[in-house]
Specification:
95 residues, mainly alpha, respiratory chain
Amino acid sequence: SHICLSISMCPDAFGFYGLLFAMFSIVCLGSSVWGHHMFTVGLDVKTAVFFSSVTMIIGVPTGIKVFTWLYMLLNSRVNKSDPILWWIVSFIVLF
């Protein structure tokens, strides 16, 4: 995120504040998704539905982060042969 911000110099809300919101949301939701790892202990249906829902909802801020990175890279003036650009693109693909 820091590399994309420094390369693109994006001052708009889709840049820094979008990433800040997404990271804060991932931290808050991520602290409550541990229950989907407990499927073998016999959780009741309501608890399983809660943890499954939170696990699916955490995909929204993750998508915001990925699409913000792509948006910032598309609007940057980085040379296509710059190694840092290829490192960022490979990180996004592996993420």
